[in-house]
């Protein structure tokens, strides 16, 4: 006996491939349409046709470099051999009390002479108690601190490298510089050694503050890019001569804003020999002490007001008068220095700057005002021989 299953329960027969062909064609066509739409829709670049025979383009002849390019390349090759990378460190201890060197910072310097003296900024050298100098040939040498001039932001290190590896930098002058003159800076900004930047002299006679708060006069302003790490490096003229030591930037972000400052080489020429001889700057002095400028201004006076003269010093010998108290208790103001060799003196800083232009043993003519605020007030000229400060 047999039973017929309902149609919905009967086994389905497989469709033939021929019967499914229209469906397959439709799916393939739909896939191609989707792919081409994705390729060709706005904002998309169609796939390029690959070229299996592609070869490099022919190289065009270079020709000759421009004259200014050639001179810049030559300047860099000549001067970069004298520029060094300075790294500073200090001694410390780890958690196990082992002594170790702690990196403090980096900067730039340049070789001053054949004896291996290296000039840099004071603020570079002061960041550590140990120093290493890397020459242009990538050899590294331990360095010793020879001398510092914090008020001028200058310092001298010394390395004991072979003479063949020592290439002193050519030295120029800064008194004859002109605004608009082309300049070059070589240094290690952000640790990138042997970096060359170019620009012009943007201004002369600028004033900046050293880390001690003292004013550095006659500073060169340049738009050559100077960044952290350039400090202590050379500013060069178009002949590759040193005309300044890059020392500071004016920037709200701490990176180059096109306003950099360099200590003029004429100042460097006065300071470095003293550091090599004495380890410090010995300033010419009158043998006197002065009231702070803010007190002088409160008295509505302009100049350097003498508060005390050193016993036995040149100021006392020349008859300069300090501030003093009379028997009746009244304070009598001392002499007011208003000029040195006809150079106007606006305050104590200006007096120090004027004296620093002279040498110990020089004789200068002071213009002073005596008897301030009295009927006997008069202007006098006094000649005085300079001595070393502290004598």
What does this entry look like structurally?
The protein is α+β, with helices and mostly antiparallel strands. Helix content is 19%, strand content 34%. The chain has helices spanning 17-40, 67-79, 122-125, 265-278, 293-298, 314-317, 348-356; strands at residues 83-93, 99-111, 117-120, 130-134, 140-149, 154-159, 182-187, 195-209, 215-222, 234-236, 242-249, 260-264, 284-285, 288-290, 304-309, 324-325, 331-332, 336-340, 343-344, 363-370, 378-385, 387-388. The strands form five sheets. It has a six-stranded antiparallel barrel. Strand 10 (234-236) and strand 11 (242-249) form a beta hairpin.
Q: Determine the structural class based on helices, strands and strand pairing.
A: alpha+beta
| Share of residues in helices | 10-25%
Mean pLDDT over all positions: 85
In what order do the strands lie side by side in the largest sheet? 1-2-3-6-5-4
Number of E-type strands: 22
Number of helices: 7
Radius of gyration: 37 Å
Principal-axis shape: elongated
Biggest beta-sheet profile = 6 strands, antiparallel, barrel
